[in-house]
């Protein structure tokens, strides 16, 4: 059955792979599932046809036969559950990998997105200089604890899993702040994720759409 996902026609990151379709592309590449991409303009995101797929008018979405999904975590989970390669077979190990997916999205990504928002959208506010270090401290606090847990391990819990896919994707969003590089083991962890052939294919595919935009 054909899988179709949506992505920005012109991603605001110009092809740095930070929009969330890259996570879905990466998951599909890891499990070896071919997919098509429907590119969507910002205007089309908010139109009824797209909202029928995604109630919040965003990318990515995922269509496969009569199944339509939105929300990256749900999509990656669906891919990981349907195909071998992203979740361990043993029930407890599987539960832990899923826990890391949620930790990436609910614990680690929140302060990182907050920092991006401050840096991108709040620079001109009178309270920017006061707020920035507070938000940076929240990112450092979170990454410091994650770095401690990761230690010298290659991946978060045994072999590479959907938990690592999501965590690496989330951490990539902190790189431009410079904070990721303050934690060499996390920076190396992210680099290991980026070195995976499946990530490279996903990154190249989104870059092909966005290069020069
Ligand atoms: N919780 C949802 C999920 O995980 O799927 C969030 C989806 C989401 O935020 N989608 C964004 C979107 O469609 C694109 S990925 N935004 C358009 C809108 O809301 O109108 C977020 C994103 C956008 C841009 C960059 N960037 O330029 O670096 C990074 C991440």
From TrEMBL:
The keyword Transferase applies. Residues 90-211 form the GST C-terminal domain. GO terms for molecular function: transferase activity. Keywords: Transferase. Residues 8-87 form the GST N-terminal domain. It comes from the Bacteria. Pfam families: GST_C_2, GST_N. PANTHER family: GLUTATHIONE S-TRANSFERASE GSTA, GLUTATHIONE S-TRANSFERASE-RELATED. This is Glutathione S-transferase family protein. The lineage of its organism: Bacteria, Pseudomonadati, Pseudomonadota, Betaproteobacteria, Burkholderiales.
